[in-house]
What does this fold into?
Amino acid sequence: MSKKYHVAIVGATGAVGIEMMRVLERREFPVGELTLLASARSAGKHLDFAGTPLTVRELTRDSFKGVDIALFSAGGDISREFAPAAVAAGAVVVDNSSAFRMDDKVPLVVPEINGADIAKHQGIIANPNCSTAIALMALHPLHVAFGVRRIFASSYQAVSGTGAQAIEELRNQVAEVVEGRPVTKKVYPHQIAFNVLPHVDSFLDTGYTKEEMKMQNEGRRIMHLPTFRASVTCVRVPVYRAHSISVSAEFKRPVVVVEARQILASSPGIRVVDDPGKNIYPMPLYCAGQDDCQVGRIRLDCALENGLAFWVAGDQLLKGAALNAVQIAELL
It folds into this structure.
């Protein structure tokens, strides 16, 4: 690629925004100019990109003049307000929030699964929810082979999925517990240190949370499978980085474990880490900072017809957010 692109990052000082910068640099994306945008309180900060300090600017509707690709990671309200201004200025928006994921006019893309969908974009392309992206990295290749009907899943989601303040809260609480001090809670309704919360996102009338329904709703769009069903329980765990998901999947056709393992091993962006006899299986500690998702504990499901159980883990700041967004930009 000889052309250089003017890239903007909205939410540049957040956990995902900083990761987007690192991924652009590491993957040698052809950045001609990089504009860092954030709220007024973050404007004026300096962040390094490719050895050059860049000043963060305040996000306004006029921030996108000359921008080719705008990577958004500043929450749904910001995306709804400013993404149309970026498109009007001639930029293509890759949005990491939930604002446009269920909009029929906006492609919802995991490049390894439905990269061709970006051709239909009208200025905005949506990045899926982090746990959805990680789960589908393992599920989709199996679907192509065996035809998935439904899944039952539980997620084990790291605090960094909530943001930088949640990482700080876990650090502080661990110190408070160890030192016998009272535990302070700001980000989560309960102590997260040495605890797990079966509560990610807000509750719906059904008793599921919004996060739990994303796996089904977004999965249908990404896999082009309107009949796909997913019953999910999302759990916040005291892990700094990388999400894990336990999946029991039921398929239309009988599953052969050896074949399933071979399919996963040859799928881009996924690595089979599966030798239980030697205590080898995916763990968030070793997925943190890795581009590839890892899948293991692959076995026939003893409770489902044509069922396969597996455990998949991945860095939700990377494949679940920044890496996926940059991969979409690479396809553009």
The mean pLDDT is 97. Residues 5-128+322-331 form a domain with the Rossmann fold fold (CATH 3.40.50.720). The chain has two domains: 5-128+322-331, 132-316. DSSP finds nine helices and 14 strands in the chain.
